[in-house]
Amino acid sequence: MPATSVLFVCLGNICRSPMAEAVFKHTVEKRGLSAEFDIDSAGTASYHVGASPDARSAETCRKNGVPVKHRARQVSADDFTKYDYILCMDEENLRDLKDMAPKGYTATMKMFGTFDPKGDRIIKDPYYGPQGGFDRNFAQCSRCTDAFLESLGYE
Predict the structure, then answer these.
(1) CA 109, chain centre distance (Å)
(2) Does residue 54 surpass a pLDDT of 90?
(3) Which residue of 42, 67, 93, 115 has the fewest C-beta atoms within 10 A of its own C-beta?
(4) Set 10, 15, 61, 144: catalytic member
(5) Residue 20: what pLDDT?
(6) How far apart, in whole angstroms, are the C-alpha atoms of residue 22 and residue 101?
(7) For 101-140, what is the HEC assignment?
(8) Could you tell me if 77 and 40 are in contact, meaning their C-beta atoms sit under 8 angstroms apart?
(9) Quick check: is 15 catalytic?
(10) Backbone angles phi, psi at 10, to 5 degrees
(11) Domains of the chain: which residue ranges?
């Protein structure tokens, strides 16, 4: 069983959370830590269940050498005990997760941005904006990934 399980969460699970999942998986693989982690992503809403990640999100990952393979799903009650960490993208996601959490949940729920060394706590939804938002998200996810791994004792 993996030492640490991590679920990344945004609203629809097609832009930010699959990007965070892909960046985290790629970083973990590059560091030879894949066996140490169970990594997935999900959305608080069911809008896009079964859909591939947004093409702009996937392309941003690919142009940075990060493969993306994911189908959108909604957070389930089991996720709150299956995962050690549920890392979401903004305050609204965190509020929704806390509302969805069943009694006796064990996951630590935080905003992924709390790990950003630049102090950029919110990973903004880029869906309705220009490409720059996806590039910004990628940079944030990369910084947060490194800092989160460091917080877990991985250099």
Answers:
(1) 12
(2) yes
(3) 67
(4) 10
(5) 98
(6) 25
(7) CCCCCCCEEEEHHHHCCCCCCCCCCCCCCCHHHHHHHHHH
(8) no
(9) no
(10) -135, -165
(11) 4-151
Query: In Å, how far are 8, 62, 63, 129, 152 from 84, measured between CA atoms?
Result: 11, 28, 30, 32, 12
- Active-site residue, from 79, 96, 116, 125: 125
Instruction: State the sign of the Cα–Cα–Cα–Cα dihedral 113, 116, 122, 127.
Output: negative
| pLDDT computed for residue 2 by the predictor | 61
Active site includes 10? yes
Enter the tokens of residue 74: 């909604």
- What is the bridge-based pairing of β-strands 4-10 and 108-111? unpaired
Distance CA 34, CA 37 (A): 6
Q: Of all helices (H) and strands (E), which one includes residue 55?
A: helix 55-63
Q: Which helix (H) or strand (E) holds 9?
A: strand 4-10
Q: With contact defined as beta carbons under 8 Å apart, do 106 and 80 qualify?
A: yes
The yes-or-no answer on residue 16 being catalytic is yes
User: Which pTM does this prediction carry?
Assistant: 0.97
Given the residues 16, 54, 61, 116, select the one marked as catalytic. Answer: 16
